[in-house]
Amino acid sequence: MKRLKTIDWADDGVVIIDQTRLPGELLYRRIDDVEAMFHAIRELRVRGAPAIGIAAAFGCCLSIADFPEHGSAHDLLILLEKNGDFLADARPTAVNLVWAVNRMKKRARELARSSTIAAMKQGLHAEAVAILEEDRRMGRSIGEHGARLLSDVSSILTHCNAGGLATAEYGTALAPVYVAAEQGKVFTVYADETRPLLQGARITAFELQQAGIPVILMCDNMAATVMAQGKVQAAIVGADRIAANGDTANKIGTYGVALLAKAHRLPFYVAAPSSTFDLNCPTGKGIPIEEREAEEITCGFGKRTAPDNVAVFNPAFDVTPAELISAFVTERGVVRPPFTETIKKVVGGGRDGGGSLLIR
Amino acid sequence: MKRLKTIDWADDGVVIIDQTRLPGELLYRRIDDVEAMFHAIRELRVRGAPAIGIAAAFGCCLSIADFPEHGSAHDLLILLEKNGDFLADARPTAVNLVWAVNRMKKRARELARSSTIAAMKQGLHAEAVAILEEDRRMGRSIGEHGARLLSDVSSILTHCNAGGLATAEYGTALAPVYVAAEQGKVFTVYADETRPLLQGARITAFELQQAGIPVILMCDNMAATVMAQGKVQAAIVGADRIAANGDTANKIGTYGVALLAKAHRLPFYVAAPSSTFDLNCPTGKGIPIEEREAEEITCGFGKRTAPDNVAVFNPAFDVTPAELISAFVTERGVVRPPFTETIKKVVGGGRDGGGSLLIR
Q1: Options B192, B240, B247, B278, the catalytic residue
Q2: Distance from CA of residue A224 to its chain's centroid?
Q3: Is the pLDDT of residue B352 over 90?
Q4: Which CATH number among 3.20.20.80, 1.10.3080.10, 3.40.50.10470, 6.10.140.1580 corresponds to the domain A145-347?
Q5: How far apart are the first and last CA of chain B?
Q6: What is the pLDDT of residues A317-349, one digit of tens each?
């Protein structure tokens, strides 16, 4: 099975797949400085909550690459914190971005105590690579837990792209599909195209097709019919930020899919690494929602499709209330209600705190 | 207030607004023969269930325009029936198309008994004009009933285009908005863009903007958020065919909007002339659903937005079960549950059978 490398470090720079060019072109783009990384994140050239966490970590490394060997550790720390905060502002909703930046800052503070500048740079690079490698392992683990959870299901609906191209490799929502395929089970995936930016049509359909997984593309407003006709037995999506009570911010349209799944008595799953849970955010009300430009809706296809000067509502995300979510699939296991308790257990244990804390 | 003339007869031909050119261009296109009318209907240059009924009636007139004055009434009848059936096949879901063709055939049979060829042509032309004029009056009447029904509402959500451009003038779902505006009340309309063909973005937003009504355009998958945030107090849509039990076929995505309205405890209204009810169709299961080309989704706007050869699901309509519909707004009044009884009353009375049969 062919899985693409969304983001990687190569020759003192970062190489990403430019996702704004998909599906027409598989373009690998080299990024050499922190400004370019900021814009790559903001313009969605690299996207997906886990992937932009990795991108921010690498961006931190790029931002200190030219720091002089004879400089002070304190100055390097200040530079890294400033650039980290700059990167963290590229998009407001995904918690992984802030999480990755904070992890890099923390590691920098540790290293500053006793290391040379060269060793600090090396240590920070190792930390960013660790974030990427952990993400790969997390995707695999989410896939294993998810494949078991979906053992009675043969056809799923997904929204946006929470696949390999949103992460380092396996993805989150699509990880169970890839792991199942390795185990010889082939899912059929109904992919919402996901307006306005069509991540479902451009990216999910592309990566599943590349991997040889049957995918059926449709418009967002066809999901209700697909469910009513019994074409899918579950819906599974990714997440950009999950509050302590389980309320989940994800791509606009997710909340609607969750309501439709409930109306058709289908399970609705959210797949995300434990770093997506934000215990500092008690409920979904505390999650900032990015609003984007009107032009994404009025001329998204390279052609103006709405009258000039029309007013537009264009939130990039919505919040799905916890009560619509059947379970979370994390790298540590499947998290079921009551979420206020179970989430605290899975996240409270520390990020690397001991594998599968929760038994299915 | 500026309302556009969707379709009209002029100088022995038909003039339509070519709706595939909106919103970029307000192009009036002349149609001179039945083949051209068939293609105008099939390619959605003229669209909306009531408007394509009018188009088919005019198409019937065009199809006999060159019939020789010395020919037999029987032959003219056969020609009209053949061309009527041809037009009725242009699109499968809207009942108004078949209804208008049947009405023209019936009138032709009446006229054939005693009229000259010239008088038959004249009589049929008068019948087509009558269909158009009745549609105008029906829109106005739907608007009056709807404006009363929505008297406590200031902001509505609509899907697709059931406005003036779907009919001769006032529209169905938007008729209450236009009538209210004449009465000095200004609604705010949230318009779903309505993928794949973007009738909401291209047509609803255009005609409301032309009329000076506040309209806010959004993607279909934002409707749930608009409802959750209390931005609208009701949803109202048109219909292509309504079964005897109230099950309603309308543009794909309508069923989803109805489910979302229910989840947010908002009323969901369907506005349609009584000719849209099909008593020969007991439930929604009997309504044929048109499936359209994959390219509408994969390269809808002159740009390919999905990988080559991807499988696509593209139903043009869906069926909303009667139990999700709060009421129908017809030219004869507001029809409330139990629909199996009330629909029979409103439609059974004959199409011109006496004004508002049902009191709100």
Answers
A1: B240
A2: 25
A3: no
A4: 3.40.50.10470
A5: 28
A6: 999 999 999 999 999 999 999 999 999 998 875
Residues of chain B found within 8 Å of residue A219, distances taken between Cβ atoms:
195-196, 220, 252-253, 297, 314
Region A310-315: what's the mean pLDDT?
97
Q: Which residues of B touch A250 (CB under 8 A)?
A: none
Q: Which of A201, A223, A311 sits opposite B256 (nearest CB)?
A: A223
The nearest CA of chain B is from the CA of A326 a distance in Å of 17
Q: A303: alpha, beta or left, given left = phi > 0 and alpha = psi -120 to 50?
A: beta
Q: Which of B208, B232, B252, B305 to mutate to test the interface with A (most CBs of A within 10 A)?
A: B305
Q: Which residue has the tokens 């008690």?
A: A282
- Compare CB distances from B224 to A192, A256, A297 and report the shortest one's residue: A256
Nearest partner of A310 among B186, B349, B202, judged by Cα: B202
Interface test with B, best of A20, A222, A251, A266 (most B CBs within 10 A): A222
Enter the tokens of residue A251: 């791509």
Question: Residue A288 pLDDT > 90, yes or no?
Answer: no
3-state helix, strand, coil in chain B (%, to 5): 45, 15, 40
Domain boundaries, chain B: 7-137, 145-347
Cβ A23–B209 below 8 Å, yes or no? no
Structure-block tokens of residue B89: 């096949």
Whether residues A23 and B263 touch (CB distance < 8 A) is answered with no
Q: Give the one of A159, A301, A313 whose C-beta lies nearest to B302's C-beta.
A: A301
Model pLDDT, residue A349: 55
Q: pLDDT for B165-224, tens place per residue?
A: 998 889 999 999 999 999 999 999 999 999 999 999 999 999 999 999 999 999 999 999
Residues of A in contact with B301 (CB under 8 A): 300-303, 305
Alpha helices, DSSP H, located in chain A: 34-42, 49-64, 73-88, 95-112, 117-149, 175-182, 199, 205-210, 223-228, 254-263, 295-298, 339-348
Element (H, E) at A30: strand A28-31
Question: Annotated catalytic, A240?
Answer: yes
- For chain A, the 3-state helix, strand and coil shares in percent, each to the nearest 5, are 45, 15, 40
Beta-sheet pairing, A215-218 with B241-243 = unpaired
Domains B7-137 and B145-347 share a fold: no
- Cis-peptide, bond into residue A50, ω within 30° of zero: no
Q: What is the topology classification, in CATH, of domain B7-137?
A: Four Helix Bundle (Hemerythrin (Met), subunit A) (1.20.120)
